[in-house]
Amino acid sequence: MTARLRFILGRLVQAVPIVLGIIILNFLLLHLAPGDVATVLAGEAGGAPPEYVAQLRHDFGLDQPLWIQLLLYIKNILSLDLGYSFRQSMPVLQLILERLGPTLLLMGTTLLISVGFGVLLGLIAAMRVRRWADTMISILAIIAYATPLFWIGLMLIVLFSIKLDWLPTTGMETVAAFYEGWDRVLDIAWHLVLPALTLSLFYMALYTRLMRAAMLEQAGMEYVTTARAKGLTERRITFRHILRNAFLPVLTIVGVQIGSLLGGSVIVEAVFAWPGLGQLAFQSLFARDFNLLLGIFFLSAGLVVIVNLVVDVIYTLLDPRIEAR
Amino acid sequence: MPAPLLEISGLTVDLPPGADRPHAVEEVGLALAENEILCVVGESGSGKSVMARSILGLLPPRRLRVSAGRILFKGENLLAASAARLRQIRGGEIAMIFQEPMAALNPLMTIGRQIDEVVATHLNLPRAERRQRALELLRAVHLPDPERIIEAYPHQLSGGQRQRAMIAMALILEPAIIIADEPTTALDVTTQAQILALIRELRQRHRAGILFITHDFGVVAEIADRVAVMQRGRLVEWGTAAQVLNAPRHPYTRALIAAVPNLDPPPPRPYDRDSVLLQIEGLDKAYRSGGGLLGRRQRVVHAARDARLALRRGETLGLVGESGSGKSTLARCILRLVEADRGAIRLDGVDLRRLSRRAMRPWRKRLQMIFQDPFASLNPRARIAETIAAGPMLHGVPRAEAFARARELLGLVGLDPRAADRFPHEFSGGQRQRIGIARALALRPDILVADEPVSALDVSVQGQILELLAQIRERLQLSMLFITHDLRVAAQVCDSIAVMRRGEIVEYGPTAEIFAAPRHPYTRELLAAIPGKAWTKPKTDAVAEEAGSGR
Amino acid sequence: MIRASLWQRFAASRSGLIGLAILVLVLILAASAPVFFPGDPFAIVDKPFLPPFGTHLLGTDSLGRDMAAGIAHGAGTSLMIGLVATLAALFIGTLIGAFAGFYGGLVDNLLMRLTELFQTIPSFIFAIVLVAILSPSLSSTIIAIAVVSWPPIARLVRGEFLSLRRREFVEAAIVLGMGDLQMIFRQILPNCLSAIIVTGSLLVATAILVESALAFLGLGDPNIMSWGFMIGAGRTYLRTAWWLCAIPGIAILLTVLAINLVGEGLNDALNPRLRTL
Questions:
Q1: Chain A, nearest residue to C214 by Cα
Q2: Exposure of A11 by Cβ count < 10 A (0-12 exposed, 13-18 middle, 19+ buried)?
Q3: pLDDT tens-digit profile of A123-145?
Q4: CB half-sphere exposure, B88, CA atoms < 13 A
């Protein structure tokens, strides 16, 4: 399987300029931010001691020409030195890593729900095309596709937490309960329901629509006629031939949408006080802790690069034509 | 005559409302016997494919519907068969082969799995035995290394190999009938010859009845036992191959046969053999792919290798070869649509290759091009007068004059000048090709490069366009570089021919000499592969009438 | 004649017509806001927390501002930002995609790396960072949305250009001696317009969603009334006055839905080949 390996390596190599580009962009944003770069880096009047600001000035070569500053910045970022947040009294990297878990949990759950149900619903809609099941699914999908994430989150809170009192409104766990082991897992799962559902709805709608369209498109292909001419049942044609071909374009979009999903989780985390990267970003935003914000910005982009690589690997497992691409 | 395996009578298939005619197929009746190849011939839109697909109930649902008739397979009406019975017959007793094997095979499944599916669906055999059978059949269709092919995905095979695999898939249950829908149209002529030989061989071995759909009378002459001719959904003539090919009765059949170009070149035309207009010297072009950081082996494809040609005033020079031979790339290098790596393109002694793109522009008007695809070669958003007048306007002709010339040219290419304000989609393929010719002529070029100008057209329209090109080249004293894969067309149109293979010109000389005494083995192979070469067309009085319908 | 048939094809889709009807209503609402609700929508008009369908059609918010006035003025904000940001994104995306697709090779490689870069960055986080750095205002919202929205357009236009570039009519234009710019803008671009229009119309919907999310997070222009801001302001009172959030949300939902439906109707009318049955 050298072709597959080569493809994945190729994508890895392609990721290098992207990561570099993100760093440069970060650098530009840093300079765009109002005020002196050193104070921005120190978290803007976040109580950083003057010695630290002076140290920053030296480390980032702020008295030197711009391109040397850029090189120093790239060096600092690549050695994962993202600075120190005086507002939170913690190194930025450590702060971010602490918040990464909850975000990954939310994203992973959302991906599973939205891709799983999206593909399933799209499949059902395509198999029942123009019948009531298709009409219902399509109408619900287009409505979900038009609904603001934060609003549906609030409305779900109103319904399930306030009116029905079934689910917790905010947070990731009942901290005061000091649950351990499976109790804790269950508690977190319980808290995860609403945020994950909120974030999933939009993407589920998207994948449902894509899957339906891809199924219908593939159903018109000549190889389907061949399969029919071989005497296969419609069921077998749908599940063995069309399904896999139709899933590929959906998978491509899943990869493209990872960044958007991460962005969406910022809003959802803000609504549900989910202690992830998004909420951290939100906090740093209002504390004007730009350095922390840019750190989150950089690492979230890096996260997208990594998830995209995973999607590429899955793609190579499903599509033998990779070498021809 | 033995009892027919398949008997179609009064078959009518409705087109959706709003189509250009009410029925795709109308009252068609024909019969197919065991151990027989029945060719159904017709141009695009004749309904031949729809007829073939309705046998197994493979028409696209909702759009096409059988409204009358019977299709009897061994006495059983397939149109009345249950879905389950139809599935039994599909693949088991009647199998089908399609035109484009790449599209007809599932890209994500190995060849082996796709063949295996047929057996697994119809027979209860252990896996190992099914595999054995698949290997046997891959061998029977002369695929090299069946053990490798069975594990391969469609994209890993060549076009000919894919079609062989399709045929193996169709044959694996030894069906009584094989329906082949233009199975060689997408293939090169030498591959086509091999596939046709294979189909003949299989007919003899399995005594199957083969319904062979084609548009090509050469192919008909090559393999048909009996022939049925379809026109606009109706069966207009049927009979034995000898009857239909040598003594056609229906005027449409006669017109179709008359439009098939003869294989013997006509007597040489007079032109000035000394005045070389365009000289190609040592032109090289290679495409490189792969390589780079990851140490993938770099693949180099030579599209042109040390090409040397001379085009004289008034001469038509044919570039002949199969797909991938580099003939189109060579022509595009000459026009600098593609930049060559090395060599010289001398027009009046000036090396065009050395000119900057800007300096090239004034020279462009002397070299014009006619394209293959009439649907892609006109800007769909531009009125045809604009399309034709664009060239002269770019070279400084005032707008009014350019448009007047455009109208004049429409007349010259046989179109109504009043059509100037219409958009391309309002014209048929043949008419569009005429517009493309008018666009090329608008700049009053010395040289016309024609890239497969008739291969996308129906045979009757082909004849008309070739006729038009012949008239124009006489009247305007044009030199032509004529690219074609069709040796019949080359024989009729070209004064001299360069045969290309893998970027190399393997043989170059006067047409008559090449056809009479080919020197290079590849040229001999190409000539031997021409379908229906043993068939001498009957002398018919039928003139190719304006059969290119359209609007 | 072609225009008439385009309208007929659009009118053939019932959902497209429904979308158009809703959209026209929203447009009328936006246009009539200064007439029916003159003055500042931030002005306090009555007691706070008045429920809907009382003295004020949609009630009052936590400070006693008229909800209906907010909804009417917010309509204009959403549509304007959605439209302007989309136009800007279309401009950037079309230019980049056109040049990448037309020239191919190194130009394509560089421009597509840039596009990929912008597509990799989580767009909403990028938008937040941009607004935060530029400080919240109408123009920074528009800039942020445009900067994060152009990559899909660039990819679409590039794809169209790549396929059209290989069409023979473009080769014909080269052979006639046409210059690059004329070929790009006069020959090829008109053939991508229908795809651009369809994607652009859907982009307006996305832009409105992003704008509302920014405003919800408090990153909107503090001097301009918007639906997202209203939801953000009402969320603290979810337990007691949930309609403060519900009403502007429905307004966003309907507007975005309408634009999506119109976009799909346009798609069916303009690209009949792409229709998915």
A1: A267
A2: middle
A3: 999 999 888 999 999 999 999 99
A4: 7
Q: Does C253 touch chain B (CB under 8 A)?
A: no
∠ CA B402-B405-B406, rounded to 5° = 85
Burial of A65 per CB tally in 10 Å (0-12, 13-18, 19+): exposed
φ/ψ of residue A44, rounded to 5? 40, 90
The Cα A123–Cα C252 span in angstroms is 29
- Residue range C134-141: average pLDDT? 90
Report the candidate in B345, B354, B332 with the shortest Cα–Cα distance to residue B287: B332
- Token pair belonging to B526: 């190409």
What gap in Å lies between CA B89 and CA B92, rounded to an integer?
A: 5
Largest CA distance in chain A: 80
Q: Are β-strands B316-320 and B342-347 bridged in parallel, bridged antiparallel, or unpaired?
A: unpaired
Tokens 């302001």, located at residue: C233
CA distances from B118 to A62, B157, B165 (A): 72, 20, 13
Compute the distance between CA of residue A171 and CA of residue A37 in angstroms, rounded to an integer.
Answer: 35
Assign C88 to helix, strand or coil.
helix
**Would you put residue B151 in left (φ > 0), alpha (ψ -120 to 50) or beta?**
alpha
Beta bridge partners of B66: B13
Segment (H or E) for C45: none
**Token pair of C213 as six digits:** 């999310």
Q: Roughly what angle, to the nearest 10 degrees, separates helices C138-165 and C67-103?
A: 30
Contact predicate B28/B51, CB 8 Å? yes
In eight-state DSSP terms, residue A174 is -
* B377–C168 CB contact, under 8 Å: yes
Q: How many CB atoms lie within 10 A of CB B270?
A: 8
Q: How many CB atoms lie within 10 A of CB A128?
A: 14
Residue environment code for A195-225, b if the CB has 16+ CB neighbours within 10 A, otherwise e = bbbbbbbbbbbbbbbbbbbbbbbbbebbbbb
pTM for this entry: 0.87
The alpha-carbon radius of gyration of chain B (Å, integer) is: 25
**Contact call for B369 and C175, based on CB within 8 A:** yes
**pLDDT(B240) > 70:** yes
Structure tokens at B196: 């046709």
Fold classification of C6-33+61-274 is MetI-like fold (1.10.3720)
Verify whether the Cβ–Cβ distance B108 to A227 is below 8 Å.
Answer: no
pLDDT bin (cut points 50, 70, 90) of residue B292 is low
Give the domain ranges of chain C: 6-33+61-274
Nearest Cα of chain A lies from the Cα of B115 at a distance, in angstroms, of 9
Is the ipTM value over 0.90, yes or no?
no
* Separation of alpha carbons B111 and B150, rounded Å: 5
pLDDT, tens only, C219-272: 888 888 899 989 988 888 888 888 888 889 999 999 999 999 999 888 888 876
Q: Is the separation of the CB atoms in A273 and A170 below 8 Å?
A: yes
User: B547 to chain C, minimum CA–CA distance in Å?
Assistant: 26
Closest chain B residue to C173 measured between Cα atoms?
B391
| pLDDT at A11 (0 to 100) | 82
Average pLDDT (C126-143) is 90
